[in-house]
Amino acid sequence: MTNPIPQEPTPIDLRVITQVAYGLFAIGLLSAGVLGAATVAAIVLLYIKRADAAGTVYAAHFDWMMQTFWWGLLALAVSGLATYIYIGWVGVIATGIWAVFRLIKGWLALLEGRIPV
User: Fold this and answer.
1) Bigger pLDDT: 88 vs 33
2) 14-39, pLDDT tens digit by residue?
3) How far apart are CA 86 and CA 67, in angstroms?
4) Cα–Cα distance between 14 and 58 in angstroms, integer?
């Protein structure tokens, strides 16, 4: 039996990683947080691969999703506190709509090969 020739591992394309991150983010977001672990997995993936994406168009998409996550989390926390005085639900709904809008806008920009703005 002969030994197979060792091959170097093929790096995963940054476009694929960005698509996967958008998909995981969408699953967590559109499940209204029930599958929130998917969104957290997307953010962890983005932070792990952030250095590889530096200087590419994908770095802007990584930043776009990270900003959407952190600003959305902050807005949900503030809205959650405001539900105690019965006005927070408006903020929760508005934050959800805003996050879905940013998700769609960013994903479409990726498909068109441009930076989300």
Assistant:
1) 88
2) 889 999 999 999 998 888 777 888 99
3) 27
4) 7
